[in-house]
Amino acid sequence: PSIDVVFTLRESLKPNKNYMFYCQSCGDIVVDDRKFLRVLPLPSENWSDLVEEWCCHPDPFARSTLHPQHGDCFVGDTFFLLNSGNESHVPKSPIVICKRCKAILGETVSSDTIKYYVTEVIIQPAEGSFSPTPRSQFVQSIVAQCLLELSSAKSTFRFTIKGDNGKTYILIWLLNSDTLLVESLGSSSSHSDFTLFGDILTPSSGPVGTWNAVKVLYQPCIQCRNKELADAWENDMGVHPLKFPSETCLELLLILGLSTTSLPPSLRCMNSFQV
């Protein structure tokens, strides 16, 4: 997808402009023609763990919660928080699903606050039209943008990919972000500005295309694999957690696995991590 379809996460929303939120899976309208008066970044989800290092008295924020007011949109590492007070229907279930395709879009944080995951919705200006994006390309583009933005802003290069069920699915180590892929595109559609890997199903003949990619090392943690390493990373303050729907975590693991198998056998591992 072009950069017009997949916005950069921190710059996707501007105050006093109208936007549409679409279900990424089916294109159904999730948020219709919404104008935000304030678009504010949220601190990382584990910010409260560091309060004791800065305060010489009991945590003054222990009972505080950050909920958007009417006209607000809060931007987290992997989600958007929206106030739902002006919507006619607020989900009663803790899980927010698409009315058409039943895909999980987010969760209800409170009676007037909804969290939408960045991997499940497409945001476009209200005056534009919806353009479908292949699921695999969208997920890898969004996750790559998350890794790039966080590594730049927080100087962290290790990440745990967690599901909404609290389980750790993948350990990711960002190796570099300046990889240039060169591949025969054939009749393949265009790629996003940042991808974890290229479309491995593209034909071997045709015009040559280039695009930027990020290179990562990873370890799967499903079925208790790499549990000791996962526990060590869990307690390491230098590791940043990223939370997505559990099904999306499995999708990402499949994407990474397909990328690994597309490499020559001698290049698939590095220091016990998969490439």
TrEMBL record:
EC number: 2.3.2.26
Quaternary assembly: Interacts with UBE2C/UbcH10 (E2 ubiquitin-conjugating enzyme). In vitro, interacts with cyclin-B.
Cell wall biogenesis/degradation recorded as keyword: no
InterPro entries: UBQ-conj_enz_E2-bd_prot (IPR019193)
Pfam families referenced in this protein's UniProt entry, alphabetically: HECT_2 (PF09814)
Species name: Rhabdornis inornatus
A GO biological process held by the record: protein autoubiquitination
The protein, known as: E3 ubiquitin-protein ligase E3D
GO cellular component: cytosol; nucleus; ubiquitin ligase complex
Biological function: E3 ubiquitin-protein ligase which accepts ubiquitin from specific E2 ubiquitin-conjugating enzymes, and transfers it to substrates, generally promoting their degradation by the proteasome. Independently of its E3 ubiquitin-protein ligase activity, acts as an inhibitor of CPSF3 endonuclease activity by blocking CPSF3 active site.
Keyword Ligase part of the UniProt annotation: yes
Enzyme class: transferase
